[in-house]
């Protein structure tokens, strides 16, 4: 079940349009916040569990120096802690501090409240269908990216 090139191009357009809309909403709602969208994204990934900074950079799709600056800023604000990786003293493990856990919870509550406000004309079914579709899209993209990184091609996946 192949997707037509024009359909794929339209999906790409809609994804980028969604990203712009999310950034616009975030910009309006983040005025006066101590953590911007980028730092909030890092907090979210760190909140999934302690991990190496290099693994975080890879998951976020940013360079190690960029992530290092974000981690340093979050550490300065008291939201993350770093410690040497016991398996490799050259590497660092990054985790949320107690205040980081609280900050992430607050951010997620604020985002959910914002969505409730902006999606008042959506039904529960609309949200559930969209969530399912976005999860499927994200998983397909992650699977394809892992296969590409591992050196396989799409024909290898069949």
Task: Give structural notes.
There is one protein chain. The chain is mainly α and 158 residues long. It has a single domain, classed as Arc Repressor Mutant, subunit A, CATH 1.10.10. 65% of the residues lie in helices and 11% in strands. The protein contains six helices and three strands; from the N terminus they run H-H-E-H-H-E-E-H-H. The protein has a three-stranded antiparallel beta sheet. Strand 2 and strand 3 form a beta hairpin. Helix 3 crosses helix 4. The longest helix is centred in the last third of the chain and has 26 residues, at 124-149. The radius of gyration is 18 Å and the shape is globular. The chain starts with a helix and ends in a 9-residue tail after the last helix.
Structural category: mainly alpha
Our count of domains comes out at 1
According to CATH, what is the topology? Arc Repressor Mutant, subunit A
Give the radius of gyration: 18 Å
CATH architecture classification: Orthogonal Bundle
Low-confidence stretches: 154-158
Number of strands: 3
Provide the residue-averaged pLDDT: 86
Roughly how much helix do the residues carry, as a percent range? Answer: 55-70%
Classified in CATH, the superfamily is Winged helix-like DNA-binding domain superfamily/Winged helix DNA-binding domain
What is the overall silhouette? Answer: globular
Number of helices: 6
The strand order across the widest sheet is: 1-3-2
Distance between the termini: 12 Å
What is the H/E string? HHEHHEEHH
Largest sheet at a glance? 3 strands, antiparallel
CATH structural class = Mainly Alpha
User: What percentage of the residues does DSSP assign to strands (E)?
Assistant: 5-15%
